Amino acid sequence: MSMNGLKQFITTVRQSKDSSDESNKIDKELKHIYEQFHNCAKVSSSTRLSNYHRRKYICKLMYIQLSGYDILPADKKDKDGLVRLGVEQCLILLNAQLSNYTDDSNKDEGVVEDIDLNLKELKNDRDIGFLGLKSLYNEHITVHDLESIVNSVLIDISSTIVLKNEKNKNVMESLWIIVGIGLQSVSELIIWVKNLSITEPFMSEFVSSVFELIHLESMKVPEFVSTRAMLCIAQLFKLNHTGDLKKEVLTWDNLAFVGKTLSQSNLNDTSIIISLCTLLEKWVVFDWEGIKSLEGLLITKLTEVSEILNSIEFENTKNNTQNSDWILQYGYMIISLFNVLSHITTVAHGTGVATRPDLKNTVDKIISNCVNTKAKLLTDNATNNAQNQLIVASVLFAALDLYINDVNDAGNLDRSDVSTVMEALVTFLQFNNDVNVKISCLKKLILVMEKTSDYGFGRKILLVESAMWRKFMHDKDLFVCKLTARVLILATDRNIRASDDIALNQMKDVLALLMYYLQKCENTERGIVLSDILTILDDYKETGIIQDVSRKILKIFVLIGNCDDEAWAKIYELIIFSTTTSDRKKLDLAQVAIDFIVKSLSIGCCENFIKLSCLVFRHNCTYWNLGDMDAQLSLLIDKYENSTLFTKLLILDTMDAYYDIVKDAKLKGIIKLAFQQEMQSNNIEIKQRAHEYFTIIKLDLSLNKKISLSNFETLPPLATSDSSLLPLPLTSPSLPALSEKWEEGYIRLLRFDQGILYDSANIRITFRVKRDKKFSQIDFNYKLKIKNTEGFGSKIVEANGSQDFYSIEVAESKPGLVNESENGTITVRFSIKRMYPENKEPVLQFRIPSAGEEINLRLSLAMKLLHISEGNPMSIQTFQSRWNQIGQFMPEKGCYKLDISTTTSSTTSDNVTHIVELITRCMKKMNFEVVSAEGGTNVGQEGFVVTCASILTLEDHPVGCLVVLTASSVEVRCTDVGIVEGMCERIAAVLGNIN
Asked: For this UniProt entry, which segments traverse the membrane (predicted)?
């Protein structure tokens, strides 16, 4: 029945002059509707609102909503709000009876006397009531409204008052109301319905009615009614209160109904099959064995579809056509069948439950068909081409899930299955332009590669497509580039077995793409990408790849390094730790680095590059002796005046290292003069550093001079002291590699204001030093890779005192890239707020529930980084005069010798360089000046010799001390025998903890 009032309103709105005029008209109408509903709702009101006007006003509200206007009042929580009043009017229309329809002079169509017209009007009222509920229902509806809705639904399910042949439609509308009002509201409805005092329990009545609709033989109903009924149950399965449905829904009788309906359904009944599969997919969570019993039936349906696709493919080949109508006709049905099967079976070799050979053949045929169809769709100009491409992609992903569903549960794919999946995904990627499909394909590739130990022929499949990866690296979407970089890094993993090796040209292509991404990626990610590049170089260094790409890496590094401090520590590893220092024939990378740094310093560079230059030049001075040493030092001296404090300190260190190496006497004089001038500096750190170096020069002891001492009586080895100068590494047995890399990280800790202290497969530790005039605060970030981030705990275990000195917090918690339930990362930030005493040394404790372990980390190094030397610096005149005075009392032979061979047995030529540097720094902390520091195989079996001298003050008289440390002994000569033993024991404790 037409409504002239509604037509007139729509016409008036459409004739608006502008948006402001339209908004005013709609606001005016909303106020009018609100007044009508509000007055009608009053108990004392004599105004009677006819069902005709209810229909008209509800339709106006729906039209306003469809026009994009908000019909909620300003106060959304107002119990008399317009939406709530509209819902109440809809419920009145739902509960309308035939007896309510009498003569009404207010109707535009006149008096209705014929009973057929009355029946039609009743039908219209109920239809608009359902439609209005679906449109107006929102989260602000109260439980009281749910009571009215449920009662209306019950009437529609079981009432005999409704019109003949209309029961099916009313039941369908009732079910759709339950589905459409939202999962949270449905959950509340079910909880509330359990407490309803009605004749028959709602759940029992509801479920029996729904399955009555599904069972097509018992009740001839339209297909769309059965479809919505099954979708309704599938929606109910998503609720948290599914236990209330098990007894009523999860029965063998109902499952038999579903199976019989599926078997009798024709392939053209796509809606029925899709709805049944959706229902089964939710059902399998509660009754796996029951759904498993339908596996044969599901495979049969899938095989029938596959045969149709093969026949279509045959006809296309025969007639040279590109008929792709099957995509829209069968695509969603294939996806639904795959989704159910992926929960109960797999086609992978040797994983999951037993699989049927016919299923694997069918899946492989459909995968092949999808790939071929994708290529043809790119040349198709049909209007629905984009939709077809997305459907084909979804079919492919659903098919591949039958291969990799066990991988999500920490399973492993067979090498032949890996090759099959990789080939399908890579081929599909070649014929795809949609960014979402690219991302999905790349994610599945990463999932497969991360969860397998053998690529088979997959590595070859990936690396031959360099043109495709280059195209992806230039994609506008940065996430596509990130995933592409991850695929390439995994493809070059040396630890994964494969049927073929990587060719040198393929390796160059991969590195070129990664270096391009290094310039393109976000600043926070550059350190990680650079680390991956360095890992690849180290894994394949025997191919000569380092020499080929090192200059490019350094060039890129200069471009990006100024905005990413972590990269400086990584490039330092490339130059220093990735270079073999014992073999002069393998110093090509070192020579390239030296030449590049010299050229960059002469042109101009950033502050961090100067720091890097100092570190590399010092290493070159000690071990390599490459290039023009005089020119290298001159460049750094030129940069000294305009550098920051920390850079000046590094330049001073480098000048001291070069003093006995440079040949130019004028340059030596400049170094001496610089030290002497800086001894008058206002900055205490520069003043002390200059004093130390100038003192050693004045002693005139050559850095290469060896001091030979006689053998003395050997004492028993000392036990390592608990109060150590160096840290105890991670005590967790699951991280054995930390102790080997900790010293290298500590060296970077002393040299850079921020960087990577330690990096392994499971834990990554970075640091940042915040310096000011009074104190240097340090923030450590511990990034741990754990299976599940839930239940993770961290705390500070301390010997004494409060946490005034430091704090700890979880800075970031996020899931992994591929699987949101596994491979998560936790970043814990530990801050040292002020220097703490040694008896309050903190120990960080991480609790990882998924691994069932606790990780403890001691932080002695952090305290020593903040340590400030006590006492005033000694002038050069005082030092020289005191040394001359006490030198005559120095014994020619040693006073004490301590055997420490058992505590330093792990020393090898590989790590001796780092140990010597650590000993040197530790002895300086004890106020010793390092006279000589040598290490390497040229020293002999002992590995290293460090000679130190010191002038101590004991009871107002000077004491001279000379110490020679080797890998097996500590020898001390001292003018005061009383302090020799204590000094020797302290030094022994230092050596014991270094190893």
From this structure: none
Q: What is the pLDDT of residue 151?
A: 61
Q: 170-199 burial, b for 16+ CB within 10 Å, e for fewer? A: bbbbbbbbbbbbbeebbbbbbeebeeeeee
Mean pLDDT of 395-409: 70
Identify the pLDDT of residue 995: 45
pLDDT value of position 477: 86
Strand order in the sheet with 824-832: 754-759, 763-771, 776-786, 824-832, 806-814
pLDDT band at 273 (very low <50, low <70, confident <90, very high): confident
Q: What integer pLDDT is reported at residue 754 of this predicted model?
A: 55
Q: To 5 degrees, how large is the angle CA 826–CA 828–CA 830?
A: 170
What is the number of other CB atoms lying within 10 angstroms of the CB of residue 204?
11
Contact 304, 362 (CB under 8 A): no
Mean pLDDT across the chain:
66
Q: Summarize the confidence of residues 907-911 as an average pLDDT.
A: 50
In single-letter form, the type of residue at position 914 comes to H
Q: Which two tokens stand for residue 769?
A: 């030093």
Angle of the 326-344 helix axis to the 357-377 helix axis, nearest 10 = 140
Q: What is the pLDDT of residues 581-590, one digit of tens each?
A: 445 555 666 7
Q: Where does 738-858 sit in CATH, by number?
A: 2.60.40
Q: In this structure, what token pair is assigned to residue 378?
A: 């790119």
Q: Hey, where are the domains in the chain?
A: 1-141, 142-260, 608-700, 738-858, 876-994
> Between 640 and 718, where is the model more confident?
640
Q: Give the separation between CA 505 and CA 551, rounded to whole angstroms.
A: 17
Query: How confident is the model over 173-218, as pLDDT tens digits?
Result: 555 555 544 434 444 444 444 443 333 344 555 555 556 555 544 4
**Domain 876-994 top-level CATH class:** alpha beta
- What pTM was computed for the model? 0.49
What size, in residues, is the chain?
995
Q: What is the DSSP string of 356-399?
A: -HHHHHHHHHHHHHHHHHHHHHTT---TTHHHHHHHHHHHHHHH
The total of other beta-carbon atoms located within 10 Å of residue 494's CB is: 11
> CA nearest 780: which of 848, 858, 722, 707?
858
Residue with tokens 């409704």: 162
CA distance 19 to 907: 82
Do 554 and 572 meet the contact criterion of CB atoms below 8 Å apart? no
The β-bridge relationship of strands 896-899 and 929-935 is unpaired
In terms of phi and psi (left: phi > 0; alpha: psi -120 to 50; beta: otherwise), the region of 836 is beta
Cα–Cα distance measured from residue 103 to residue 87, given in angstroms and rounded to the nearest whole number? 26
Contact 396, 371 (CB under 8 A): yes
Find the Cα–Cα–Cα–Cα dihedral 585, 589, 594, 598, rounded to 10°: 140
Angle between helices 629-640 and 645-658 (to 10 degrees): 150
Tokens, residue 430: 């070649």
**pLDDT reported for residue 223:** 57
Report the range out of 240-244, 705-709, 990-994 with the highest average pLDDT. 990-994
The structure tokens listed for 361 are: 């053949």
Q: Which of 17-26, 562-571, 911-920 has the lowest mean pLDDT?
A: 562-571
The string of DSSP codes covering 213-275 is HH-TTTS---HHHHHHHHHHHHHHHTSTTTHHHHHHHS-HHHHHHHHHHHHH--TT-HHHHHH
What is the residue type of 62? M
Q: Taking the mean position of all CA atoms in its chain, how far away is CA 976?
A: 61
Integer Cα distance of 255 and 283 in angstroms: 9
- The token duo for 667 is 């340059």
Q: What is the per-residue burial (b if ≥16 Cβ within 10 Å, else e) of 642-657?
A: ebeeebbbbbbbbbbb
